[in-house]
Amino acid sequence: RPFVSSTLSTELVVLNDERVVSALLGNRGAVIDEPAQHLIINAHGQVPRIMDALAIRSALPISVVERLVTRVTEQVSTRLMETYRISERHRELLQVHAREHLLLTTLAKNATPEMVTDTVEVLYEQGRLTPTLILRALCLGDLEFACQAMARYADIPVDNASRLLSDRGRSGAEQLYGQCNMPESLRPVFQAVMSLVRRHEYTGAPRERALFRNSVYAWGLGYLGLEGSVLGHDQLITRVLIYRPERPTGRRGRTRHRPLD
Fold first, then answer.
1. CA triplet 241, 243, 244: central angle to 5 degrees?
2. Is the pTM of this model over 0.90?
């Protein structure tokens, strides 16, 4: 049909049928809103032809472009970068953060403390135990990984790092961050997430994780001035770690932000 409303498009997307989604994306008269586009990426992000078909649609939201640029073919990715003025450095950052998110979510499924220790050591030796990986682990509520990683960074026993990180005041965690010599530009993120840990008396237990992640998500939206956004949790964390907010501007106090150097 020549025209498909956004409501009908969403109904078709949630059918989760590759052929239906492909046909929908190929229909120039179909109105596919931002939430529906994210649903397509969530469900079909590993299907190149669908990702390429979504990427060539006009006037894509930047939140969608940021997810697509690491999933489509090189030719389509280059076109997206040119159209939406995404630098090669920005794309590289998005790729790194996507790999870090995959690593942590995969590790979190069935990892024992011993497996975490081995993984931290391997990552450290390979130069892949980055500050953003550690902070992403904290944002995901993975205190085990964050603690072991910070202990390795600071070259102190894990028990010592755990005591500092679980200090009910701010001084212990601040001391550990300093010992790790991590970037000052990321310290506000660390401070905010640790504040949430203390506020919710979060222990890292699986039953507590969903509530904690929701709290991190709500904080992140406010931190970036993106209240009401449809960003997913992983994409929001990536933005928190890539962008540095500037002081609020405008009547509603919206926060401007720029990429980290």
1. 105
2. no
Find the largest Cα–Cα distance for the chain.
65
Task: Compute the residue count for the chain.
Answer: 261
**What does each of the 261 residues of the chain score in pLDDT, given as a tens digit?**
789 999 999 999 999 999 999 999 999 999 999 999 999 999 999 999 999 999 999 999 999 999 999 999 999 999 999 999 999 999 999 999 999 999 999 998 878 999 999 999 999 999 999 999 999 999 999 999 999 999 999 999 999 999 999 998 889 999 999 999 999 999 999 999 999 999 999 999 999 999 999 999 999 999 999 888 888 999 999 999 998 664 443 334 444 444 433
Question: Domain boundary residue among 47, 68, 86?
Answer: 86
Domain boundary (63, 86, 109) is at 86
| Residues 100 and 215 grouped into a single domain | yes
The burial class, CB within 10 Å (0-12 / 13-18 / 19+), for 231 is: buried
Which phi and psi (to 5°) does residue 256 adopt? -85, 150
C-alpha pair distances (Å), 40 with each of 8, 30, 99, 239: 14, 14, 20, 20
Domain that holds residue 230: 96-259
| Residue 243 in domain | yes
Long-range contacts of 7-12 (CB under 8 A, 24+ apart): 9/33, 9/36, 10/35, 10/36, 10/39
Sequence letter at residue 161 = A
Position 1 in a domain: no
Do 30 and 62 share a domain, yes or no? yes
CB atoms within 10 A of CB 110: 7
